[in-house]
Amino acid sequence: MIKNRIKRAWDNGKAALNGWLAIPNSLTAEVMAAQAFDGITVDAQHGVVDYSDAVQMFQAMRASNVTPLARVPWLDPGIIMKMLDAGAYGIICPMINNREQAQEFVSYVRYPPEGTRSFGPTRAIFSGGPDYFCEANDNVICLAMVETAEAYANLPDIAATPGLDGVYIGPADLTLGLTEGRLAPGLDREEPELIEALHRIRNVCHAAGIKAGIHTASTEYAIKAIDWGFDLVTLLSDVRLLSAAASKHVGDVREHVGMESEHSGVRTAVY
């Protein structure tokens, strides 16, 4: 089975850099996969991606040998197993709030005896290799999103779940959960109470022997997160990269030639 580049980075004591796809397009996926990320996540939760889109995006990414991941919409065995059968080498699952849900999640990702995953890797046996069944449990990664006050309170129990590879932080929902809506959702948090929460999550994960991942919205914050010791750092997304680059270049030209703009919409994506 082709090895997981994210796990290889971890085995070498390095952080892994992850890309993010919310646009349901194989060309966008192919372009992003060629940019030296260790992994690329197809977002089927908040992205506008459905299952058939995800399959084509995985196919487009294969030539670059980047490790494909998927964020599923929810803790549901059907879509988790289908994403794995389509070739995802890891699953990020949102809204894992307690040990029981973490155990369920792990069971859907692992073949027996470690879990309850049904066998039928229709595409994965070709994209991963003919020995897929023998090595999938060791190669596929399982990341639970901690993003609510309940999950934060239950973090030590979640992190101690056998078979869980790590925790992935969704800073926007975590902000809503920990501040009860007092602060608006968003990435790249600088508030002391939220910085403290991020460090606690990383420390609890590392104490439990698992990895800590985080989504970032800028180069500067991604570098900061790696310096803090996060093991998987997502740098922006295809939507944000596209909107930010377009906004900058259009703005530069308009400013240079003195062109007024009647556009009043959102110029850059938040997530």
Secondary-structure map:
Elements: H1 5-11, E1 16-21, H2 26-33, E2 39-43, H3 51-61, E3 67-71, H4 77-85, E4 90-93, H5 99-109, H6 124-127, H7 132-139, E5 141-146, H8 149-153, H9 155-159, E6 166-169, H10 171-179, H11 192-207, E7 211-216, H12 219-228, E8 232-235, H13 238-257
Parallel strand pairs: 1-2, 1-8, 2-3, 3-4, 4-5, 5-6, 6-7, 7-8
What does this structure look like?
The chain is α/β, with parallel strands linked by helices. It has 2 domains: 5-236, TIM Barrel, CATH 3.20.20; 240-271, no CATH class. It has 13 helices and 8 strands. An 8-stranded parallel beta barrel has the order 1-2-3-4-5-6-7-8, surrounded by 8 helices. Helix 3 (51-61) links the parallel strand 2 and strand 3. It is globular and about 65 Å long. The chain starts with a helix and ends in a 14-residue tail after the last helix.
Describe the structure concisely for a colleague.
With about 270 residues, this protein is α/β, with parallel strands linked by helices.
Oligomer: single chain
Largest sheet: 8 strands, parallel, barrel
Mean pLDDT: 95
Topology pattern, helix = H, strand = E: HEHEHEHEHHHEHHEHHEHEH
Distance between the termini: 33 Å
Number of strands: 8
Uncertain stretches of 5 or more adjacent residues: none
Shape: globular
